Amino acid sequence: MKEEKMENTTVCILDDEAIVGDRLKPELEDDGYEVEVFTDSASALARVNETCFDIFITDLKMEGVDGMGFLERVKEKCPDSEVIVITGYATMETARESLIKGAYDFIAKPFRIGEIKAAVKKAKKKTRRRRQG
Amino acid sequence: MQYLGKAFAALKNIFRRGKENQAPFSDLFVWFQNILKKNNAAMELIADMGGKIGGEFIFDRKYLSDSVKKLEDLVRSSAYDLNYITDNQYLELYGVIEDLAKKLEIELSGKMVIHGAKKIYVLNEIEDGMEDLVGFKTYNLSRISNLSGVNIPESFAVTVGGFRDYMAYNNLFEKIEGSIEECRNGQRSVESISNSIQLMILGGEIPPGLRRQILGAAERISQGKAGNCYFAIRSSGVGEDGDLSFAGLHDTFLNAPFDELLSNYKKVLASLYNQASLEYRLRMNILSLEMAMPVLYQRMVESRVSGVLFTLDPNRPDRQESLLSGSWGSGKVVVEGDAGVETFRISRSPPYPIMERQADATSLMPGSLEKDPLQEGSDEPDAGPCLTAKEVPAIMDVGLILERYFKRPLDVEWSIDESGRLWILQARQIHIPRPKRMDYTELKGVTEGHRILFKDRGMIAYRGIGAGPVWVVENDHDLNNFPRGGVLVSHYAPPWLAKVIPRASAIITDVGAVTGHMATVAREFRVPTIVGTDVATRLLASNQEVTVDTERNIVYEGLIQELIRHQLLDGPSFEMTREFQLLRRLLKKIAPLSLTDPDDPGFVPKGCQTFHDVMRFVHEKAFRALVQAGKDSRSFLRRGGKRLRSRLPLDLVLIDIGGGLAEGVDKEMYVDPDQITSLPMKALWKGLSSPDSWNTEPIPVDLKGLMSSLTRTQSAEMLGNALPSINLAVLGSNYLNLSLPLGYHFTAVDAAIGSSPENNTISFRFVGGVTDITRRSRRAALLATILEKAGFKVQMNGDLVIARAINLSEELMMDQLFLLGKLIGFARQLDVLLKNDEDVGYYFQKFREQAEKPAERHEGGKNGEHDGLYSG
Fold this sequence. Notes:
heterodimer; A: alpha/beta; Rossmann fold; five-stranded parallel sheet; globular; B: alpha+beta; Dna Ligase, domain 1; D-amino Acid Aminotransferase, Chain A, domain 1; nine-stranded mixed sheet; eight-stranded mixed sheet; 29 helices; disordered C terminus
């Protein structure tokens, strides 16, 4: 019997520096995720209004709605999704704030590809458990 | 930290007791410590940036600009510190730093430096990121021109700047602007517009300056034989051979004699606006006044046979086959697809068996009917009339080296001259339509059935996929027999592996740092590399075939062709991203160290080419300021220096700048070796004072007298440097600077060792001697060999030897210092003993025997670690 294809976990990447999404997308696709990339928070938010991704990866400092604002909106609209915050301004203060606002994990830029893959994998497990439970 | 503070305070008190006018001397320690700290921080930043170039990290522009900013701050404030303690002796350093900072700013701003850039570049002057200046064709050639085994005819490029000069000189921009507009609006036929623009360009005049430069560059290539030297003049358009395929749209002129160099330049420029080009640009919506045409001048190879290699058959990329076409004479026939061509379909796996051959009758030229002498008696399949059985694999070898470098299937134009030498004329990507991206289940399927030998071991120094036979390198013999496309496996990652790196398909080491010299070279040649796996030499054996996937950090048994193909046909690799290229360019202006010899006349602020140079300069001059403050040993002793008690005939003064000596020695005049707490000094002293080191060979009586005189120090003037003529060690808990003006030679060691490898560095310098320059050079050669084998990066010039080790673990660094200690003792009498060249080998052996007594190195340490360090 043909194995039923499991629905892919979806990931939304938001970073105003295109390089982050450009490099991360194929890496995550290699691991079987379905990935969409945005470089401005407005269009990412527009997309969030249409659909909730399982996992969000967002930068903190951006033009317009910044990462912290984006995080809040996502947690409001998609409470079952997990958000991983990535930023070059890695201070304890911002880390703490993002975690209080519901971020699942916090990763300082620049990061190893393996590091973020591991974080995404853990987030995926958590969303799966939530979905099943 | 608290301890340091106390130490400073204590020292300050001692110095205050000195003469009034020498009071600032005490401050020197504090300032010097500050400079050291900044130096460490700068080295850490540089290493951090270097580590990002391997592809393992995702970084953005912000990271690059932040890092540069931090580095600039450190460099500026170090220069300030130096000027403070030297009474503004090095003010010009500020100007040098600002020049460097400006260059980095320009890179970061992303503005191409066309204005002010040179009009002509020879290949080896072309730097990363200059593709928009010299055109892709030239740029690609310049990237591969230093790969070993790849010959490229002498070439130079007339840049976009040259093109703009030509256009401006002849007022062509304004004239063409209108025509382009007409073309866009479809007011006039493309053919007629093309004709009129080309006529305008051909009717122009080359600006006199540019004309002189073109002819001058060509003359240098022809080396006075202008009558016998011919050139290929090729279009090297911006975007050509890059993202867009302009292949064949623009003109190339072969066999141009000297008097046609200038007229052909205009013809190539005009071809930018030929009908096909205009139509293509119109269709692709890239028709604009910004179009530009760099031109490549390449010395013509007198071809016996030439052709084209497609490293992967574009029509059947799933088959592991290359297409090779060749014909007699120069390659235009093949490129233009005329008759007289012979084509082979060849397996991509060595020894590259020919799967299929199509010969066109006209390729059977006179001469080809005679049997090639190389083929006689050979069991190998006859490659065909125009290529010998040995030439096909040679072309394949080079083609696959280039493919590994660009990580893309390539279209390579090659030529073989009368002497049988293979030349690469150009190399460009083949645009093979990307298959549907292999999804992760397919990817899993591809690797299924291949045993994983090990995974997630060590650190990735460069990302990619490589496959081939393992070649474990333990000594020179292994190194010299390294197979093309082999997977280089080594216990250590010493710099001397560098010579085979361009030929390697992947590199795996047991020990080593991502930021070490070897890893830097691996990145330069884009070879997938894992360092510090611990297990590679144990789990892998020579000739075993493996596939190394450093993207996922897995080493598989066997060759997984699909995985390699997957990489070749995949989207642009990380090397092609702007950020990556920017980092490479920034690092070129930051990381290389060219100021290695403080006594070189070039060791001046103006000689600083990178920020690393500036930091090196500041460190050296600050150190000299520190030690020059005392005139002789007495003046140092009076201010808190200590004499070291030792059986060695070495009057060594120790100065503690913090944590270098045990507490409670303040009041002592003499200290014992076991009161040294400076980590690097402890290791070095252990080597220097170990039983064999100081007296390696019975010296004839008459020489003994000489030797004893040699341990006396030498006057500063004779040494050509301004250091005080005493044996002096400046110690910190993790720092050592030792200068030994022993006899007629001068030894210096500068080392910083601690628990974070990024900060660890040793530099060793040895120069001079009592005998003639031949013997002294002999000794230098011996020292260089020993140091190189031990994993140092070595530079030699006459009787001067400079060796560096960086970024190794604390333990390995201590071993290196132990070895240097032994070497210092061993070396001081060598020039007397080395009577002829054969002696070099004898004493090399002698030293190895000595240095391999592991018991001396560590008390109960991990002696096994050191096996193989001297296996060369």
